[in-house]
UniProtKB/TrEMBL annotation:
Keywords: Lipid metabolism, Lyase. This is Probable enoyl-CoA hydratase EchA17. Could possibly oxidize fatty acids using specific components. Its EC number is 4.2.1.17. GO terms for molecular function: 3-hydroxyacyl-CoA dehydratase activity. The keyword Lyase applies. InterPro entries: ClpP/crotonase-like_dom_sf, Enoyl-CoA_hydra/iso. It comes from Mycolicibacterium aurum (Mycobacterium aurum).
Length: 221
């Protein structure tokens, strides 16, 4: 039984004739959806489950109406030994890699904040939709840490190396408008419309052959 991550799919009665659906990988660790070791393990498990679901064509990654994720759980990290912290970093990286490897189109629906490892998790999705009041940041440097889960590399792939270095070295926050200009997000909408916009984006793929979509995603490496 997962404690912090759920996989949600539509009721069978509302599915299209082909039986395909868009699933939601829901982060639920209020109030800030910080990524503990357990939460990361559950993300890895949920991504693996979704990868095997023939009825699921695309996946939305969502943190709820208030916040996507504020990143790694700093109070937990501060209690860990050096070996435990290394394990926690690996578990976080595994969660990011599992989402990135999911063989279906993925859309991150971002509300509130996507910071640190939370931003890296969002960058593991194929596309990102956010509210116009959302804030983004590679904030690990503010805690004296490097970006988690390959965050610097993923950020550079999205916004270019120079802009990524600026964000990583400074830990500064980026608002939604700048994020759109940088290419960090793909669509900016009103805060209340984030999930619906992500669903519209993901639903475009319902009529496509799942095998073709998987092969198309794999072609990007």
């Amino acid at each position: 039984m997962r404690e912090f991550v759920a996989v949600l799919t539509p009721d069978a009665a509302v599915l299209p004739e082909n039986g395909r659906s868009v699933a939601t990988l829901l982060l639920s660790r209020p109030p800030t959806n910080t990524l503990t070791r357990q939460a990361c393990r559950e993300i890895t498990e949920a991504a693996a489950e979704l990868g095997t679901r023939d009825d699921v064509v695309a996946v939305i990654v969502y943190g709820g109406h208030e916040i996507f994720s504020a990143g790694e759980d700093m109070p937990e990290l501060q209690t860990l030994s050096a070996d435990e912290a290394a394990t926690a970093a690996r578990v976080c990286a595994d969660a990011v890699a599992a989402l990135a490897a999911l063989p279906k189109p993925t859309v991150a629906a971002i509300t509130g904040y996507a910071l640190g490892a939370g931003l890296t998790l969002a960058l593991a999705a194929d596309w990102r939709v956010s509210g116009d009041n959302a804030k983004f940041g590679a904030t690990e440097i503010l805690a004296g840490l490097p970006p988690a889960g390959g965050g610097a590399t993923r950020l550079a792939a999205a916004v270019g190396e120079s802009k990524a270095r600026d964000m990583v070295f400074s830990g500064r926050f980026v608002d939604a408008r700048e994020a759109l200009e940088l290419g960090l997000i793909d669509q900016m909408v009103a805060p209340d419309g984030v999930y619906d916009a992500a669903l519209t984006w993901a639903s475009r793929f319902l009529e496509y052959p799942p095998e073709a979509l998987s092969a198309a995603k794999a072609s990007f490496g």
